[in-house]
Write a structure and sequence with these properties.
single chain; alpha/beta; Rossmann fold; 2 domains; 7-stranded mixed beta sheet; 5-stranded parallel beta sheet; 12 helices; 12 strands; about 15% strand; elongated
Length: about 300
């Protein structure tokens, strides 16, 4: 199914927002983005284009952008970004709600604020929340996360941390890999890796973490609610504003190729005090008070 947008919908020089807004967090992001830009320039207009089931099919997008002199396209999520990039549109692409900074770095017509914090940021927060823990463990699939693990090894050494990485080539290998890793580390850092972290593996990871009293640092608050110690979180409204600031620079004439991708500037975290108590962890009052969300 081709992308179908009536001509009257896209006003001349409208900013195109490409992608679904079905999730609350995504709507908060778009609202923050639009509000910031309108505050700076109140005559701006936007057109939201929600892709169909075949999200890769954006036939007609390039024609719309060229015909209506669209100055900028905001994409929502990795598939929407990939769809716009494949169309080879002339308008600069600002990627929102995507985790892969490398895809942006390799495209001279694109930039954005990625959802995932840099490795250095995540390791510094482990040191801040668990200052006595010196050995960080990671379970990872080389094909999915090898480049991030290599970067993490270098950052950990620079921060005075020991880093132990255990390969997992399939979910079937996870139980043996966990038992081996948990004997050697103080904390398990869960990087976003679809082979290692999934609904199917969640119970096993959390139970093994509890049994060995090795805290698990999770990628989201859903894991923290289920028993992980903490996770770093994104403030989607502020993320939208941050992305809007980046877009404004491009609208004001800066070449998008000179605007490097950024990580979220605001760091929030969720914390499970029940897990901390079970593992006899002494968290500072400042850390507890600073949590955006606390599970007890």
């Amino acid at each position: 199914m081709a992308l179908a947008v009536p001509e009257c919908v896209v006003a001349d020089s409208s900013i195109v927002v490409l992608g679904a807004q079905t999730k609350k967090a995504h709507r908060q992001f778009v609202k923050g983005f639009k509000q910031y830009l309108v505050e700076q320039q109140n005559d701006l207009e936007f057109v939201d284009i929600a892709l169909g089931n075949d999200i890769e099919d954006t036939e007609g997008l390039k024609d719309i952008i060229q015909r209506e002199s669209v100055p900028l396209v905001l994409t929502l999520g990795p598939k929407a970004f990939r769809s716009a990039a494949q169309q080879d549109v002339d308008a600069p692409l600002i990627a929102g709600l995507t985790r892969d900074a490398s895809a942006l770095e390799n495209n001279t017509n694109a930039t954005g604020v990625v959802l995932e914090y840099k490795v250095e940021t995540q390791l510094r927060w482990i040191k801040r929340i668990l200052p006595d823990f010196k050995t960080i463990g990671v379970l990872y699939n080389p094909a999915e996360s090898g480049h991030r693990v290599e970067a993490a090894k270098k950052e950990a050494a620079a921060l005075g941390l020991n880093f132990v990485a255990q390969e997992v080539n399939s979910p079937r290998e996870l139980p043996v890999a966990m038992e081996s890793l948990f004997r050697r580390v103080d904390v398990l850092w869960g990087i976003t890796d679809p082979v290692v972290l999934s609904r199917q593996t969640a119970k096993a990871i959390l139970l093994t973490s509890f049994r060995n009293k090795v805290p698990f640092i999770a990628p989201s608050s859903a894991w923290v609610k289920a028993g992980a110690l903490y996770s770093l979180e994104v403030d989607y409204s502020d993320l939208g504003v941050q992305t809007g600031e980046m877009a404004r620079n491009v609208l004001n004439g800066r070449q998008v190729s000179t605007v490097p991708p950024q990580e979220p500037r605001e760091v929030r975290y969720s914390l499970n005090l029940r897990t901390a108590e079970h593992m006899r962890l002494k968290l500072s009052g400042k850390i507890v008070d600073g949590a955006a969300q606390v599970f007890e």
